[in-house]
Write a structure and sequence with these properties.
The structure holds two protein chains of two kinds. By secondary structure, chain A is an alpha/beta fold. In chain A, 37% of the residues lie in helices and 28% in strands. In chain B, 19% of the residues lie in helices and 43% in strands. The chains are: A alpha/beta, B alpha/beta.
Chain lengths: 263, 401
């Protein structure tokens, strides 16, 4: 069993504090969702766990199986079993998806024992089929010229190929129509096992109809303010984030508040 | 046939001509105008094998030469330039110096007078060559003696072909190199021309690749510079006929202490001509790279389009790079634009690759390749793309990153 533990995490970018004391524990075999309004630090949390160089941890720690991630470079975190499906994956012309995924798999194997071409292609065909991805997509350049939906699928394809222990999915549902959402959810559900944990970051309850969480965390103003089961997401959908804030008696201004009033 | 007047020129007169101008590159001390052209033959072809269509010249001799019978029947000629001078003197005479005037500058004039090896290609009107036509010049540096070589290519009206031309060195002796390539595209001809130049670290040289395009001819260049030594290079395209088009794609990679200056020029002479320059350069270690991009629209070239984009990636603090765009426009009814930048590694791409577990070294290599991607994407043949990627990987492995 693998554990990801975030302890009183404070993070700043350009001297502005974004995370103000996040606490979270998750284990393999569990499905977690973090919900929250825009601008509350959800994506920052995912990037900091992965090790994005732009963010600075001002206090607190993140542990992966007891090891402090602060001591590990981005690639070492990935090889230890972390995965982040990004909201805006980079495009790289000149490097094919196939080549990239092989390099990623081989990075986890001894240098003198790379995956055989046959095994790799077999696995790729199998996983592409789950995501209804045409074969020629893997021969294309990495994310280059991909539509928003194709990029999301490609992130999940990488997840299925790499088979990490814990995956963070940052708004994997954004920009997807309902059919594409179902396909992406099928891919994630395919991974479910006692050896795999997933943390989904989303604005919408809709995703959670297809990937049912064990735990739902609500984040506001750089903190997790409430944790509950799947019913918490449904309640949010009905009452909005402002409702929960008022119920908890928090003094926070939400970015998109008063939108209704303005209409 | 052409606006350029051929001239005979003496070696003394050639020595009086000015050196070609490579802005921001000091190369007089390389003494490229003092050549001792001695090249011995090497017995076996190294880069082409039996099925490859084309010719490989090693030193001064053809080591591989193959044309399918149907191309021979169609009148296609691919042979060493000496053989062509002997067997087809009038053809050679007609096109030699038709693209680069004999008195253009000291280095190209000396090449004209001193070349002792090279290739002649003649593709008659309306002939379409489906196979990749490979032209390889191997410079012999197993002993000292400079390489002075010339390639002359004529592509007839409405003829089509895809060329892969390579410039390689065998041996590690210190030599100088002078290579001049003239490409004449007659009306409606269409050529994809990829070039891999990979001369040794101990070779300093001059390379001039020039083309002249008649009406509606189209030439797409993809030039990959993997030379390890000091080089000055011209890629010059004259869009003489109306509606002629060129895409001049150039990639260069320099490392260690080498200096490379690359002038890429497109002249729009005919009406409605289109000339696009796209350049990518990567600089490692202490090396220096200068891109001088020139879009020159000549008076009368109404409706012409001249665009250029040059980007340089610096991978070390000691690297020196320069991308100088220049638009010279003597006609008002035209479109033109340019973009140039000198920058460092794309941090977002590097992070993305490393977030999948690739170590920094491998991730950097892929980001660098991605930077070259826009040029790679212009290369039609997969074989050529793969060959260029191999050269990129080789150079990156050797550099002191």
């Amino acid at each position: 069993m693998t554990t990801l533990e975030v302890k009183d995490l404070h993070v700043a970018i350009d001297n502005q504090e974004i995370l103000k004391g996040v606490n979270l524990v998750m284990k393999t075999g569990e499905v977690h969702a973090i919900m929250g309004p825009n601008g509350t630090g959800k994506s920052t949390l995912s990037q900091v766990i992965m090790g994005h160089p732009a963010y600075r941890i001002t206090s607190g720690e993140i542990y992966f199986d007891g090891q402090n991630l602060a001591d590990m470079a981005v690639d070492a975190r990935a090889r230890a079993g972390l995965f982040l499906a990004m909201q805006y994956p980079a495009e790289i012309q000149g490097v094919t998806n196939i080549e990239f995924m092989r390099a990623a798999i081989n990075a986890r194997r001894p240098e003198d024992d790379p995956i055989s071409v046959m095994d790799f292609i077999k696995k790729l065909d199998e996983k592409s089929a789950i995501l209804s991805m045409p074969e020629e997509m893997s021969a294309r350049y990495l994310n280059e010229g991909f539509s928003g939906g194709e990029k999301k699928r490609n992130e999940i394809l990488q997840l299925l190929m790499i088979e990490p222990k814990i995956a963070i999915l940052d708004e994997i549902d954004s920009g997807l129509d309902i059919d594409a959402l179902k396909v992406v959810a099928r891919g994630v559900n395919e991974m479910k096992s006692p050896d795999f944990g997933v943390l989904m970051i989303t604005h919408y309850q809709r995703l959670l109809d297809y990937i049912v969480p064990d735990f739902v965390h609500v984040m506001m103003d750089g903190r997790i303010v409430k944790t509950g089961g799947p019913q918490l997401a449904k309640k949010l959908e009905a009452e909005g984030y402002a409702g929960l804030r008022d119920e908890l008696g928090l003094d926070i201004v939400l970015t998109d508040e008063n939108v209704d009033a303005g209409l | 046939m052409t606006k350029y007047q051929k001239q005979d020129i003496s070696l003394t007169a050639a020595q009086q001509l000015p050196l070609p101008n490579f802005p921001k590159v000091k190369y007089a001390s390389w003494h490229l105008d003092q050549l001792m052209p001695v090249q011995k033959a090497i017995s076996n072809a190294h880069f082409l094998t039996a099925e490859d269509v084309g010719i490989e010249i090693l030193g001064t001799q053809a080591g591989h030469q193959y044309l399918p019978q149907e191309l021979i029947n169609a009148g296609v000629l691919v042979m060493s330039i000496q053989a062509a001078k002997k067997d087809y003197p009038q053809l050679v005479q007609r096109y030699l110096s038709s693209v680069i005037p004999a008195d253009q500058d000291r280095l190209s004039a000396q090449n004209l007078l001193q070349y002792n090896a090279g290739i002649f290609v003649y593709i008659p009107d309306n002939v379409v060559i489906q196979s990749l036509l490979q032209l390889v010049l191997v410079q012999n540096a197993t002993t000292t003696g400079d390489a002075v070589q010339r390639i002359l290519i004529y592509v007839g009206k409405n003829a089509q072909c895809t060329i892969l031309q390579q410039l390689r060195t065998m041996g590690e002796a210190t030599i100088k190199s002078s290579t001049v390539i003239e490409v004449f595209l007659d009306a409606g001809a269409n050529v994809q021309y990829s070039a891999i130049d990979a001369l040794s670290a101990n070779t300093s040289g001059y390379l001039n690749r020039s083309a002249l395009l008649a009406d509606n001819a189209q030439l797409n260049w993809a030039q990959a510079e993997f030379n390890r030594g000091n080089m000055v290079m011209h890629l010059d395209t004259m869009l003489s006929g109306q509606g002629a088009q060129t895409h001049a794609n150039v990639m260069a990679m320099v490392s260690q202490k080498q200096v490379q200056g690359i002038n890429t020029r497109v002249s729009n002479r005919g009406r409605h001509t289109i000339g696009h320059i796209l350049q990518r350069g990567v600089i490692l270690d202490h090396a220096a790279l200068v891109f001088n991009g020139v879009g020159n629209i000549i008076k009368g070239a109404k409706g012409a389009d001249a665009q250029q984009e040059s980007r340089i990636l610096m991978l070390s603090k000691k690297a020196r790079g320069d991308a100088n765009p220049l638009l010279l426009i003597d006609e008002s009814d035209v479109t033109a634009g340019h973009a140039a930048s000198v920058g460092r590694m794309n941090a977002a791409q590097l992070y993305y690759l490393m977030s999948r577990g690739l170590c920094e070294k491998v991730a950097r290599r892929l980001v660098i390749r991605g930077f070259m991607g826009p040029i790679l994407a212009q290369i039609p043949h997969q074989v050529v793309r793969e060959s260029i990627i191999e050269d990129i990987e080789r150079q990156l492995k050797d550099a002191h990153q």
